[in-house]
């Protein structure tokens, strides 16, 4: 294998590259040796020139040291795009985060007492002020929130006796102080699956709970819940069907009836609200969905939801409810595993505080600023993009379209938008474009351009639909339109 360079030859080549020459010698040497091991064990490799091997090594090293995470321009019309990080962090919140988190912060220190503090306490008052909750627990996502609730409530013998404190005080469902109830009652129509194959039945089982499904897929009545309650019932669980809707002959149980039933039998009632609609601004006033504060006002014991969906903040699982019911969650050893970090805690505070004033919410919260766009402003963006493309010889057509909340939120909500359909029928794809993206004969021009746009310095995610290419302008910022036009221009040949 005389074509394989020595370690010193690799090191010399690295030193000759201005952008790599300052890498720590121990780190690059170890990486070179591991690279050589893989090279020598590659039985299908054929002899090549040393220079080619060195070039490949340098290219691979640069690729590793270039952060693959970058801003993406969202031209899909899906606001809370799960694959694009869902809610963008608001700029004014980011400025506050940068001012506080580049130095030390009192995340677990009480400045009044001089003693250690509990990190969620900094959110307790603001969530009480905005949503009316008594207490709060924050973990790293809503799946973790539900898991913590199930793991705690389905494995503790005293939750039912000391929990909600109403109703029959255990007389309807006698249980000894050492008996752990683990059955969780949930409607068959709410045994949901969300992205990444996360399924309610699976998480119930893993948390040590026993699934007690009631009703049918399309119809569940309060009597179904009543019949299922027994001495092993740990809690009643309701899950928001955030990413789908059952229509036709349906019947669901009212929240008020489930609250009354849970109080009657002294069983905690937990609602996984999913997307976390804190408040309904005017543009969402017609929605039938309950807000988080309305859920608490109706008497639901514990509500959990995501922080990076309709709340508009970063990824987090937020649990609201009474101090008595949330206290066992805080004491569960899992909290050390699932707890949120200082960046999340601070970001949540700044975003939830925006809800104190609707004008501030619509101006500063990126989710609601986008949701509140007028039809006139959407039209202006569409015409600006369309006319700019026409000016460089790229024919297109403006179509009326819809945008969606996305991220498993508000599945019924259709927001008016506009999309630009690119007419590439008379335009040959440039040879540069084909060579860079590895286009094949069976790929259409639209498919080639789609991938070409994804390979820009700032990628553009468009829509491929029925082998046509669309740019939905709903989540596009006006200031990004010149860049989009320039990228499209360089992705096709205008000759």
Task: Give me the secondary-structure topology.
Layout lengths: L6 H9 L9 H17 L8 H15 L8 E2 L16 H11 L7 E2 L4 E2 L4 H11 L3 E5 L2 H12 L5 H4 L20 E5 L5 E2 L3 E2 H7 L3 E5 L7 H7 L4 E7 L15 H10 L4 E6 L17 H6 L4 E5 L10 E5 L1 H9 L2 H5 L3 H12 L4 H7 L1 H6 L3 H17 L4 E8 L11 E8 L8 H7 L7 H10 L5 E2 L1 E3 L2 E5 L8 H11 L4
Parallel strand pairs: 1-15, 5-8, 5-9, 9-10, 10-11
Antiparallel strand pairs: 2-3, 4-12, 6-7, 11-12, 13-14, 14-17, 16-17
Helix pairs in contact: 4-14, 5-14, 17-20, 18-19
Key descriptive features of the protein:
alpha/beta, Aspartate Aminotransferase, domain 1, seven-stranded mixed beta sheet, four-stranded antiparallel beta sheet, 20 helices, globular
Question: What's the CATH superfamily of the largest domain, by name?
Answer: Type I PLP-dependent aspartate aminotransferase-like (Major domain)
CATH architecture of the largest domain: 3-Layer(aba) Sandwich
Strand order of the largest sheet: 4-12-11-10-9-5-8
CATH class descriptor name of the largest domain: Alpha Beta
The biggest sheet, with number of strands, parallel, antiparallel or mixed sense and barrel status, is: 7 strands, mixed
Category from helices, strands and their pairing: alpha/beta
Euclidean distance between termini CA atoms: 49 Å
**Radius of gyration in whole Å, from Cα?**
28 Å
In the CATH hierarchy, the third-tier topology of the largest domain is known as Aspartate Aminotransferase, domain 2
The total count of helices amounts to: 20
Please bin the fraction of helical residues: 25-40%
What proportion of the residues form beta strands (DSSP E)? Answer: 5-15%
How many structural domains?
Answer: 3
Poorly predicted runs are 160-171, 174-178, 430-442
Shape: globular
Summed over residues and divided by their number, the pLDDT gives a mean of 87
Structure summary, number of beta strands: 17
């Amino acid at each position: 294998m005389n074509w394989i360079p020595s370690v010193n030859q690799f090191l010399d080549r690295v030193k000759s590259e201005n952008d790599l020459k300052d890498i720590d010698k121990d780190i690059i040497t170890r990486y070179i040796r591991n690279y050589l091991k893989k090279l020598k064990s590659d039985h299908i490799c054929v002899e090549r020139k040393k220079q080619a091997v060195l070039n490949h090594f340098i290219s691979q090293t640069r690729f590793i040291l270039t952060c693959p995470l970058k801003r993406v321009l969202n031209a899909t019309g899906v606001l809370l795009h799960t694959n694009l990080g869902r809610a963008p962090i608001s700029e004014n919140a980011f400025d506050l985060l940068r001012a506080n988190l580049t130095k030390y912060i009192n995340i677990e220190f009480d400045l009044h007492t001089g003693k250690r503090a509990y990190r969620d306490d900094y959110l307790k008052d603001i969530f009480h002020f905005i949503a009316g909750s008594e207490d709060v627990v924050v973990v790293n996502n809503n799946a973790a929130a539900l898991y913590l609730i199930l793991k705690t409530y389905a494995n503790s013998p005293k939750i039912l006796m000391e929990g909600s404190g109403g109703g029959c005080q255990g007389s309807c469902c006698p249980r000894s102080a050492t008996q752990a109830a683990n059955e969780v009652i949930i409607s068959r129509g709410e045994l949901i699956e969300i992205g990444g194959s996360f399924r309610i039945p699976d998480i119930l089982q893993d948390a040590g709970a026993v699934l007690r499904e009631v009703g049918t897929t399309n119809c569940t009545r309060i009597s179904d819940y009543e019949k299922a309650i027994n001495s092993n019932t740990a809690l009643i669980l309701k899950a928001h069907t955030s990413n789908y809707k059952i229509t036709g002959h349906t019947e669901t149980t009212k929240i008020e009836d489930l609250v009354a039933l849970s109080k009657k039998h002294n069983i905690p009632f937990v609602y996984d609200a999913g997307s976390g609609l804190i408040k309904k601004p005017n543009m969402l006033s017609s929605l039938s969905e309950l807000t988080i504060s309305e859920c608490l006002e109706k008497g639901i014991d514990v509500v959990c939801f995501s922080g990076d969906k309709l709340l508009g903040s970063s990824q987090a699982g937020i649990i609201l409810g009474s101090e008595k019911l949330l206290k066992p969650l805080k004491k569960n050893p899992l909290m050390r595993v699932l707890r949120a970090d200082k960046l999340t805690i601070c970001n949540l505070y700044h975003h939830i505080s925006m809800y104190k004033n609707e004008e501030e919410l619509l101006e500063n919260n990126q989710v609601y600023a986008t949701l509140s766009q007028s039809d006139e402003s959407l039209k202006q963006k569409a015409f600006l993009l369309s006319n700019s493309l026409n000016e460089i010889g790229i024919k297109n057509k403006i179509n009326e379209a819809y945008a969606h909340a996305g991220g498993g939120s508000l599945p019924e909500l259709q927001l008016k938008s506009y999309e630009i359909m690119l007419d590439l029928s008379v335009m040959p794809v440039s040879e540069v474009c084909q060579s860079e993206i590895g286009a094949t004969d069976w790929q259409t021009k639209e498919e080639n351009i789609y991938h070409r746009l994804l390979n820009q310095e700032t990628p553009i995610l468009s829509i491929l639909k029925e082998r046509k290419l669309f740019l939905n302008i709903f989540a596009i910022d006006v200031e990004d339109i010149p860049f989009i036009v320039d990228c499209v221009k360089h992705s096709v040949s205008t000759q």
